[in-house]
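Regression report. Comparing outputs from two consecutive submissions.

Submission 1:
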Amino acid sequence: MRALLSVAGIALGVALGFGVHLMNRAAVEELATAVRALSGDADLEVRGGRSGFDETLYQKLARLPGVAVASPGLELQAAIAGGSGPTQESASRALPSSIRVIGIDSLRSAQLQPALFASDPALRTALLEPDAVLLSAGAARMLGLGKGDDLVLVVGLTRVHLRIAGILAASALRGAAALTDIATAQWRLDRLGTLNRIDLRLAPGAHRDAVQARIAALLPSGVRVQAVVQELQGERIDIIPWSHDIATFVVNALAPAEVAKVVLDEDKERIEVVVPDQQLSLAIGRRGQNVRLASQLTGWDIDILTEQEESERRQAEFENRTKIFVEALNLDEVVGQLLASEGFGSIEELALVDEKEIAGIEGFDADTARELQERAKEYLAQQEAELDDKRKALGVEDALKDVPGVTNKILVALGENGVKTVEDLAGCATDDLTGWTERKDGETKHEPGFLNGLGISREDADAMIMQARLKAGWVTEAELAPPPAEESAEESAQPQA
């Protein structure tokens, strides 16, 4: 009897604790929803891939129970051909070759982002004019353009002229970007009937997880829904709905600095924080105190970039991708820029994507797509042959090629680090392949592994090692199999006769 009473008491305590947890969570979510309703933040965002999704999805989501506001969007990177009326200062320096173009429903978006037109409400109406575009302060400064000038973009093989109707306040839209009405974006960027983003604010009292699950059930392949936790749009966080989320934890730790974006690299336990240019010293703190404290609290390494630095890096990445396509596939620069602006990031992606996706690009047809893929496959085959020759020269045995997950690039990297047989790989630890992170004297230091820079996660590395041990005979299939499910608590709790 005493044992039964003890079990009942424990069960009651657990139930009460869980009930308090649920009530606290509900209260925090309700308070957070109210704050977002005032500040204009979205609760959820629906994102499509490079090809986006049909705009009819917007109507379906806007009518869902629990959704208070839905704002459609179309966001693309477009190549810049030039602009009319550049200042003398901009004419003396190299202009960026692309710009982020954001198409919005100005009426809907204003409910989620009231800061967009707070400094000049007339810009909301100006955005509805044909071919009108608003430049961010950063873009206007970089391009040397002003109100009344033309922003000339390259869409496919066509030049598109957009009229600059005004310049947004520096606090309204961060980075180098062009804002236009969504109808203009769809028409002029050749994306009629297509969206690639929908921002959603939930109604008070709506359960986030339940609404998110209903949305996920309606989404086509390649489209995802997620909570808005990374793009904070420069707003200071005073209330944190999910205190255990690493991104919001870092933002809170860096207060009072404003944060524009947080990017996580979970494999390396590294966080990249983007702040407005004028907020850099505030985010770092005196003698680095802020960022050092945030790193100590989270246990993650933190890199802080300004929006200008991030914009320059994105520009450099765009130019680098263009250069890769031009040189590897012997293309004209305009074609290389077009592939890069469509989101293709590598020769491998171009070779493996559905041919129809390439043929659907403005100015391309099926023959062009076929030719591009043939060139990409020929280039990759040549690269594989060169890597295989290098692998043989390093003395890496053929048997190592048969280990699942091991590619020629990996074989060369392993050979350069003395791993040349199946037994050599089987004897490796995960840290040997991916590297490891340790903290010394309050500083985080990352030691590189053999496969550093190849995009291999710890899970991938561990799987390769275990497959090598299986091939070497060190373990058996039975030992690698997951353990059988344990006897259920209900069965184990039954009294024995």
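Submission 2:
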Amino acid sequence: MTEASLRDIALKESASSSRLPAVILFSHGSVLCGAGIALDEHAERIRRSTKYVEVAVGYLNYSEPTFAEAVQRCYDAGARRILVAPFFLVPGYFVTTALPKQIATAQADFPDVEFLITPPLGFDELLADALIESARNPLPASSWRDDLTNAARYCRANSQCPLFGTPRCPRVPGMNPVPPGTE
């Protein structure tokens, strides 16, 4: 699903309604603190480049905000049509089974909201170009675990995080102090 595809859907939808739709970027979630930063950055880019009443991120598991919280945020912003964009490459289990269950629950809570699911990311030339560029700049083995090091900057003191209770966890009593700017 490209940004242009979301824009095309929004334009078609808003043409038939006086209200702009909202978008929820839907992903699985992770126990690793900070794992959703890239998705937050995508949401911010969409907010800046398109016209939606709201652009929210919603997770199935582990991370916050949950899908239900994202729906509430969109509803509170006035959305009565929500485009759910799965942040997955293919329509696997989370897109074909887990997401429809989440939407069914949300539909029961918000019967006046229309939910539309966009296709998962799939193939896109720009994504392929990004992968090619990434392959041109491989990381050395010494940096393969940088995500664990960077996670401490986004610590939520989540007992499921692989860093929780270790010397690298900044918020566990007796461990490192909270890094500046993460409170």
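Expected: both submissions complete independently.
Actual: both completed, but the second showed a warning that disappeared on reload.
Relevant detail on submission 2: Helices lie at 3-15, 37-49, 67-76, 93-109, 125-136, 146-151.
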